[in-house]
Amino acid sequence: MVDAGCNCAEEKCGRSAIQINQSPTKALPSGIPTYTVEIVNTCVNGCSISNIHINCGMFASARLINLKIFKRLRYNDCLVNDGKPLRNGAIISFQYANTYPYPLSLSSLLCSNP
User: Fold this and answer.
1) Domain residues of the chain, as ranges?
2) Which pTM value belongs to this model?
3) CATH number for the domain formed by residue range(s) 7-112
């Protein structure tokens, strides 16, 4: 795994190519706050970015999340897209429900040439 930029073709396409956005959305009927997360591959040269791991603490959700999209493997290690490549411009999106938002940040990824 690469945890710094990697050289795909002639451009860097690494950590900076993955953007994580999180925003509050409408609460569940029970009143539990809900958050929408978008994980975006902003790479412009078509690099294949896979094995995206996110720092996620003790991530848990009162709302079911498709484990192929986002799953906690262990403390502070969540896997995106079941480890499969996220093509350039692609967005993985999901909602979770918890009393508070989890700070989510990129931990590591694997980058390869197109």
Assistant:
1) 7-112
2) 0.86
3) 2.60.40
